Amino acid sequence: MRKLFTTAIVCALSGALLGCPPPAGDNSAKTTTETPEGGEATTVPADGDAKPAEGDAEPAKDTKKSNGIDVSHVKPGQKYTYKMDQGVEMTMVYEVKEVTPEAVKYAMTTIMNDAPVGPPNEVEFPLMPAATTEATGEAPAGPEPVGTETITIGGIDFDCKIYETGGVKSWTAMKFPVTIKTMQGDKVTMVLENIE
């Protein structure tokens, strides 16, 4: 019974805390590149459709659809290990299976007492265009960050924005796996501890 209850908690927390979409309103999905003549730039919006500025010969090369999440460091076979403490200590491991322009696919294994809690779950983290409102075409407003911090794990720097809601702080990066750390009060409830 305890294992069933714990599994239910793990699944609920995984959905709530991990793989959260990036903060709304973040414009980091837009990139610009100069034309070869050094003239006007081409802007590539989050939906990946290049819109050449006047005088551009061709659209920008990188038109991969993305919600602005950097996956350049993600490779098949990598393992991302989280330590979690929600009253019960556990470890969660993401093993990357595939990286495509549309998604990062990984197997998520939850470990308690040095043993997996059931078989790995196959998860697909979508890399799709950022959400916009129909009326304005702008990203919906989201909460404002209360601070920033750079956290380095496995030699990878995660430039995090810190958000606080209902006594829970979360460190969110525009780099996969997005949620890097959460705290409730003074207690770290989840942290990305290792990347190998």
Write the layout of secondary structure elements.
Layout: H1 2-17, E1 31-34, E2 41-44, E3 79-85, E4 89-99, E5 103-112, E6 115-116, E7 121-126, E8 147-153, E9 156-165, E10 168-173, E11 179-184, E12 187-195
Antiparallel strand pairs: 1-2, 3-4, 3-12, 4-5, 5-6, 5-7, 8-9, 9-10, 10-11, 11-12
Shape: globular
> What gap, in angstroms, lies between the N and C termini?
34 Å
Strand content: 35-45%
Uncertain runs are 1-65
Please tally the β strands and state the result: 12
Run of helices and strands: HEEEEEEEEEEEE
Structural class: mainly beta
Could you tell me the mean pLDDT? 73
Total number of helices: 1
Can you give a write-up of this model?
- With 196 residues, this protein is mainly β.
- It has a domain at 2-27 and 68-132 and 186-195.
- 8% of the residues lie in helices and 42% in strands.
- The protein is built from 1 helix and 12 strands, in the order αββββββββββββ.
- It has one helix spanning 2-17, and strands spanning 31-34, 41-44, 79-85, 89-99, 103-112, 115-116, 121-126, 147-153, 156-165, 168-173, 179-184, 187-195.
- Strands 3, 4, 5, 6, 7, 8, 9, 10, 11 and 12 form a 10-stranded antiparallel β-sheet that branches. Strands 1-2 form a two-stranded antiparallel ribbon.
- A hairpin with a 2-residue loop joins strand 11 (179-184) and strand 12.
- The longest helix is centred in the first third of the chain and has 16 residues, at 2-17.
- The protein starts with a helix and ends with a strand.
- The model is unreliable at 1-65 (pLDDT under 50).
